[in-house]
Amino acid sequence: MLNKVPEVTVIFWIIKIMSTTVGETGADYLAVHVGLGTTLTGLLMASLLTVALVVQLSMNRYVPWIYWLTVVLVSVVGTQITDFLSDKLEVSLYISTAAFAVILAATFASWYAVERTLSIHTIVTTRRELFYWAAILFTFALGTAAGDLATEALGLGFSVGVLAFAALIAADAGASALGVDAVLTFWVAYILTRPLGASLGDLLSQSREYGGLGLGTIYTSLAFLTVIITLVAWLSFEGERASKTQAFPSN
User: Fold this and answer.
1) Cα 127 from chain centroid?
2) What is the C-alpha separation between 229 and 248, in angstroms, rounded?
3) CB under 8 Å to 163, separation ≥6 — which residues?
4) Helix, strand, coil proportions of the chain in percent (round to 5)?
5) Which helix (H) or strand (E) element contains residue 179?
6) How far apart are CA 144 and CA 169, in angstroms?
């Protein structure tokens, strides 16, 4: 089958950050404002993620709306895993951050031991795609824990958190431009965009009393979902047009 993930472009990173923000604000909205609670929200989102993954795995090529729907749902579930550990089981953010870092490292090690590559440009078998989505899930869980650790436990706050993680991503991009391994810098950036998106979501949605701008989780989620849907629709349109151009080349 064809490669199952999109090319890494500016639009890719915009949608990725937006999806992480939706994961943060959407999970908070369902658990707190709708009143479903952390456990029920987690079970509901996990069920939807399972369905989306089945559809995604059944495809033999990259389909934008299916892929990015799966990413958004992984973002919500990853957030819920960390929140469940912190809020329900009262696991320290230091411990959960370290634990998810170890689990993610083990996932990458297993993936590389079996496939001899961690490149996203070679997701052309079901086994590689399963490794890929496992890694994605744990990057979201790790990013959530690390973001909460920085903004809450370490007291950086949402504004400083956004700036700090943006600076780390910029440093990672600089390392990539200087010739550091592209696969390594990609996955570092992928991990860091999670706490960046979470901090941005909290900055926009949380009340001014807690250091946010007070827009609320509903408006923040809707605004970012609108951007995601618009960009994914555009990608789908461009993909279909490119396919038609290749099928019927002009003379």
Assistant:
1) 21
2) 28
3) none
4) 80, 0, 20
5) none
6) 16
Nearest to 147 by CA among 106, 105, 96: 96
Give dist(CA 8, CA 6) in Å, integer.
6
Which residues neighbour 139 within 8 Å (Cβ) at sequence distance 6 or greater? 78, 104, 187, 190, 191, 194
Size of the chain in residues: 251
Tell me: the pLDDT tens digits for 84-129?
888 888 999 999 999 999 999 999 999 999 999 999 999 999 999 9
The reported pTM is 0.88
pLDDT digits (tens, 9 = 90+) for 13-39: 999 988 888 876 777 777 777 777 777
CA atoms within 13 A on the CB side of 161: 31
Closest by Cα among 103, 121, 46 to 77: 46
Contact 4, 61 (CB under 8 A): yes
What residue type is assigned to position 169 of the chain? I
